[in-house]
From TrEMBL:
It comes from Pelecanoides urinatrix. Residues 486-506 have a biased composition (Basic and acidic residues). Gene3D superfamilies: 3.60.21.10. This is DBR1 enzyme. GO terms for cellular component: nucleus.
């Protein structure tokens, strides 16, 4: 079957679907599935805009609300993960995944589904070490900290995915797996994006958690976005035994969704011809969710995941064949995901703007039904209970002092990873700067700028689409460029990369139970992956 893959769409759904229709008219190619690698921006109304971590001047309604309201319907089944520019309050309603609109499915904080026998997994958000071990405690209305921490990857999601044993066909992450640039044409990448050089040479660009998942899951394809540049790599995995067949991953990072940009990729995937056309649950993933349900944490307290270090009675939460069989029996061997999309918020009305509406914490019926069916913890219900009991606060203690610093370290929880810079620390002339701890922009206000009703003009160029060849492997010249060079790592970085997810014990740095240590907090800057308007105009 044909699968279309998109990078950061930034709410421009009309643009994506119009491009797919144009592809069919001009090339007689009709994808069966569309995948989006984050920054989807499922914005329903003005309250959702207030929950998106960008300065007010970059908050635009775009076109998702038309699909949410039913005015339009996605012409192809669309599956997406979250990025770092999302309506976090909307996606938070569906921690285990669910429909955000008819025919548009969100994978949740982490998830695995099946379509026509193809196994598709993904993890939402970006990596930040200072939030990695915390629970999902955030809820709207967000403050200046939680509006960002809400989309930071947590160790429990990585732990769940590492329990999977069966092969994965496709995996998606928003930020790149760290070190993946050593397996493609690194020279060309740095030629296109010279400001990546510092991170590439120090091997700190990308997510170490995603890198660990890449090495564990060994999917056939891995797709990412976030950095707004197209890049292909081919990674041959090491085998653990002589009997194990060699595996390789074809990696592709996608550009953002803009006119005259190569932002869509079409690939051919082997599928099960006897499988239906419905999106399906993955039995092993459901079994893992059930097995790890006791590990759910909705507090700011940091905790390690279980490991075989003598401190935990159980550390293997992988699904047994018996557990998978039980899931199948619970579902009567019908794995079809119900089409139970429900409106949970008012839809944007251009004729009646509501600029001062406040976001509220909502429990989505889809999540309630899913948790009841499989005996899982409804994370949002647990947060609500904790709030009522006064045990969870969305507010941070006032910081005693802030310091300017680059994003290569953390003064908070020690991490098994030596850096905290999934956002770039180098200056990217094509991007705007976002102050992660606040700044001149008021995040509590929003500017609504609905997209024009008329479709964009595609007559000038049709460079948005490229048909994926049989192999995504880089050319021999590309391979020589990367394989003849030893990955440039500092000694500390190399040692840390070799450690597994939980090798280092968690150490607390004084302070109270909420982790406020009384030491100086570090003011961080996140370079959001948004292109400057001037660049867009020149494209």
């Amino acid at each position: 079957m044909k699968v279309a893959v998109a990078g950061c769409c930034h709410g421009a759904l009309d643009k994506m679907y119009e491009t797919l229709e144009l592809l069919q008219r001009r090339h007689n190619v009709r994808p069966d599935l569309l995948l989006c690698c984050g920054d989807f921006q499922a914005v329903r109304n003005e309250a959702d805009l207030r929950c998106m971590a960008v300065p007010a001047k970059y908050r635009h309604m775009q076109t998702f609300y038309r699909y949410y309201s039913g005015e339009k319907k996605a012409p192809v089944l669309t599956v997406f993960i979250g990025g770092n520019h999302e309506a976090s309050n909307h996606l938070q309603e569906l921690p285990y995944g669910g429909w955000v609109a008819p025919n548009i499915y969100y994978l949740g904080y982490a998830g695995v589904v099946r379509f026509r026998g193809v196994r598709i997994g993904g993890i939402s958000g970006i990596f930040k070490s200072h939030d990695y071990r915390k629970g999902h405690f955030e809820c709207p209305p967000y403050n200046q900290q939680t509006i960002r921490s809400a989309y930071h990857v947590r160790n429990i999601e990585v732990f769940k995915l590492k329990q999977l044993k069966r092969p994965i066909d496709i995996f998606m992450s928003h930020d790149w797996p760290r070190s993946i640039y050593h397996y493609g044409n690194k020279k060309q990448l740095l030629k296109m994006k010279s400001f990546f050089r510092q991170e590439v040479e120090s091997n700190t660009l990308g997510s170490p958690a995603a890198s660990e998942l890449l090495q564990h899951l060994k999917p056939t394809y891995w797709f990412s976005a976030h950095l707004h540049v197209k890049f292909a790599a081919f990674m041959q995995h090491q085998t653990n035994s002589k009997e194990e067949l060699p595996k390789a991953t074809k990696f592709l990072a996608l550009d953002k969704c803009l006119p005259h940009r190569d932002f869509l990729q079409i690939i051919d995937i082997e599928h099960d011809p006897s499988a239906g056309d419905s999106l399906e649950y993955d039995a092993e993933w459901i079994a893992v969710l059930k097995a790890t349900n006791s590990l759910v944490n909705v507090t700011q307290s940091s905790c390690n995941m279980p490991e075989n270090n003598g401190l935990h009675a159980k550390w293997d939460y992988s699904a047994t064949e018996e557990a998978i069989k039980e899931v199948l029996e619970e579902l009567n061997h019908n794995l079809k995901i119900p089409c139970n999309f429900t409106l949970t918020a008012a839809c944007y009305d251009p004729s009646k703007p509501q600029k001062h509406v406040e976001p509220v914490h909502t429990i989505n019926p889809q999540t309630t039904e899913f948790c009841a069916q499989f005996g899982l913890t409804d994370i949002n219900d647990r947060i609500q209970q904790a709030k009522e009991e006064g045990s969870v606060r969305g507010e941070y203690e006032e910081e005693e002092e802030e310091e300017e610093m680059d994003s290569t370290g953390s003064a908070e929880e020690p991490s098994e990873y030596n850096t905290d810079n999934s956002g770039l620390s180098s200056i990217n002339p094509d991007e705007i700067m976002l102050d992660e701890e606040g700044g001149d922009e008021d995040l509590s206000t929003c500017s609504v700028d609905p997209s024009p009703d008329h479709p964009p003009d595609f007559s000038a160029s049709f460079s948005d689409i490229r048909i994926m060849p049989d192999s995504m492997a880089v050319s021999s010249d590309d391979a020589m460029d990367s394989t003849n060079e030893e990955p440039e790592k500092s000694g500390v970085s190399k040692q840390v990369e070799e450690k597994s997810l939980n090798e280092r014990p968690l150490k607390r740095i004084g302070g109270n139970e909420n982790g406020n240590s009384g030491i100086k907090k570090i003011k961080r800057r996140n370079q959001a992956i948004y292109a400057a308007e001037d660049e867009d105009k020149t494209e």
